[in-house]
Amino acid sequence: MREDTTWLLPFIIVMLIGYFAWTTWLGRRGAVHSGSMKGFALAKGKISPAIVGLSFGTSYASANLFLGVPGWAYTYGLSTLWYTIGCFGVTWLGLLLFTKTFWRYGQKNGGSLTLPQWLGNRYKSKTLQVLVALLVLFNIYYIVGQNVGLATMFETVIGIPYMWGIAIGVGITIVYVSLGGAFAQIVSDGVQGLAMALVSILLFVSLLWTIGGGWNVFGTLHTELRAIDPALVAPLSTGGPFYSGFAILSIQWLLFSFVLLPHLMNKVLTVEKEEDLRTFTLTAGVSLFVLSVFSVFAGLAARVILPGLASADSAIPAYILEAFPVVIVALMVMGLISAILSTTDSLYLGITNSIGNDLFKVLAVPVLYKNKNLTEQELDGKVLKASKVSLIFIGLVSLYMSFSRPESLALLTNFGTSAIISGIVAPIGLGYFWKHANKSGAIASVLSGAGCYMFLTSSGTVEHVFQAMFFSSALGFVSMISVSLLAEAAKKREKTAQQAV
């Protein structure tokens, strides 16, 4: 740690206390809108579409883009830019293609609160709704990735033990999400997004004095990286995620499909009016660009000025300590903490909403309250309570799972998301454009896509997470098309047989 960081810990402690007070206040404000399951899950119409769009970008960014991907840049060099460029361009293209139709379908049948319910309503299948809700639980790995990122930040910058860093992040997030639901989560994400944008820009600008070279700063950075290892400036990397053209194509497919993840598509359902979708997608695109493009360059610069770090994921915290005065370091650390917590709260909310709305309501309520004749309001109250109780349970599970530090934060966060995408991309995509899509095909796609992904990764048949997701998604499409056509043909034969009788 630098000699002039005596006041860094007190600064950050004071700001953390202020942050906790602010988010708790937001939680109490949000409690007004969280008395029903709809208010807790979406806070629909209560928040400006611009803030919702900014929240989309901040929920997307996470510890992966601010710590994990710069860690890749530190290790593999310029080939990491394939991921960074895709995070903005390819992801935003996916958002533009999916948003309007997803929103329109979400308004039918009384409205959808979650992605599993959206699919259940689209295909008129409670079975599909439950299966996708179970798949959403894979986001626990994404939460663990955020916990690890936060703990790494605390440990590297101010020396707080790894375990304490995890406990602090889990504790803060659970408190304000349980109090204020979607309102607290989206508003806090919107404000945090501004802090994250400032951090991104500062990281980028700092290359002027850490690397030097003036207007030729990129040329200087390229020269310095080449001097360390020519492989760092190659378009492909050996032994990393970017080792071939097909590997990069698989990553772009992941980033295109990333918008379909439950904690992101729920933002679309929060928008009240269709005409507000334009504002939402524009704000989301701007925030995606600022939050995804700039920080990776600091990871590259860290390889030049801080060679030999024990953990590549600590490249950004270590770089900040080297590049900025102590007061700015404290402010930037809070910005990076915002990047982590802004995704964590979305993930917690998405998982717990699915547990309450898609699992408890569909599976448990018919058994537990079979003869109780509950009113709609009583039923809603019980589902809401189940969601909030599950929030504590998921928080404790993620805490336990975070105790073992992973080798790569970026790979951990993408493991769970790839499992979900493998199962849902075909039912959602074909559900938009293909008139023959039906529930039999959708169920087959979820089971085959997610099942194939789990087999390929657990057995080691395909070690590359992104390629496993690509193959599994392809199988999901094939399964859905073939089973949908077979089910449709069977239905026609049955109808013809009945008419003949």
Automatic annotation (TrEMBL):
Catalytic activity annotation: L-proline(in) + Na(+)(in) = L-proline(out) + Na(+)(out)
Signal peptide (from-to): none
Keywords: Cell membrane, Ion transport, Membrane, Sodium, Sodium transport, Symport, Transmembrane, Transmembrane helix, Transport
Organism: Planococcus glaciei
Protein location: Cell membrane
Lineage of source species: Bacteria, Bacillati, Bacillota, Bacilli, Bacillales
GO biological process: sodium ion transport
UniProt record similarity statement: Belongs to the sodium:solute symporter (SSF) (TC 2.A.21) family.
GO-annotated molecular function: symporter activity
Membrane found in the keyword field: yes
GO CC, one annotated term: plasma membrane
Official protein name in the record: Sodium:solute symporter family protein
InterPro entries: Na/Glc_symporter_sf, Na/solute_symporter, Sodium:Solute_Symporter
Membrane topology of the entry: Multi-pass membrane protein
Main localization, broad class: membrane
TM annotation in the entry: 6-26, 47-69, 81-98, 127-144, 164-187, 194-215, 242-261, 282-306, 318-341, 386-403, 409-434, 441-459, 465-487
